[in-house]
């Protein structure tokens, strides 16, 4: 699971009619007067094409400028640039150092991201115990995605004793706060009856909510539910449509499921050639 970070922008038009162009202009005006927060937010506008043309190189430069002036959110964003290769070459070591500096200065998102680096040995030695401790710290400081990462640690015994009950509680807490990944994870617990009563209808409802909010894995899982009539009426056409949607959004397992639909004429016309192409694509992606 890749690290997540928050963006502090005016793009949602809080307290006024949404106007991304106006937000961009205001950030630029205030940034020119020396505000590091505005410089950081201006970088976000360029990174995501908010109120202006997308320009990752410009975003990188602005994050770097604000970070050099001590802005803790810009430090984290600059770390993301090196982590993902946004406007610069990927560099795990630099990303780690920036997350560490930002975390030490109080950036809670960076604490979570630092945990990810320790968990996967990115820019530092792998240390699952340290990763667990950082996820726990970030979760206690209100980072919702850290709740999921901490739940994953308890679920799989990463850096701590395995505790499915604790994992379930953490996923539930994150799900109640609207996190789409937690909704899917919680659906798995209800589907398999792990530390809770097996409830296929509840699992279906959670997958459906997660899918509607953009969780691509949940879209694939929802297709399985419709295909087999689990928690809902059986609907092969709906299953096919969901597998197709998930496949188009990059879910490798959905490519295989879609291939099966074409191979056997499930929810669509039988097409062995299309099935072969999908199986081939899934295999190629698995080997990358």
Automatic annotation (TrEMBL):
Pfam families: Sel1. SUPFAM superfamilies: HCP-like. SMART domains: SEL1. It comes from the Eukaryota. This is Skt5p. It comes from Rhizophagus irregularis (strain DAOM 197198w).
